[in-house]
Amino acid sequence: xxITFKLDVLKPHQPNSPTLARALKQIEGVKYVNIxxxxxxxxxxxxxxxxxxxEGLLLDKIVEVLDGNNCALHSVDEVTIxxx
Length: 84
Hints:
alpha+beta; globular; 2 helices; 4 strands; Alpha-Beta Plaits
């Protein structure tokens, strides 16, 4: 079984998206990370993050990494759970 989260996130310009993606990929159970930039302003970037992992992947761990990178989770827009 796998789980996919679609997250609406606000992040500062640093860390950049590849650095944040690598940090999220280090979470236990994460198999896939995709970051899509929605909007850029002077100090922040609005992004959509898709994270796929095994059934043990916890949203709390994702939020912990986002917080550690000065990012704010606006909303969990979608959750998909499927058999592999």
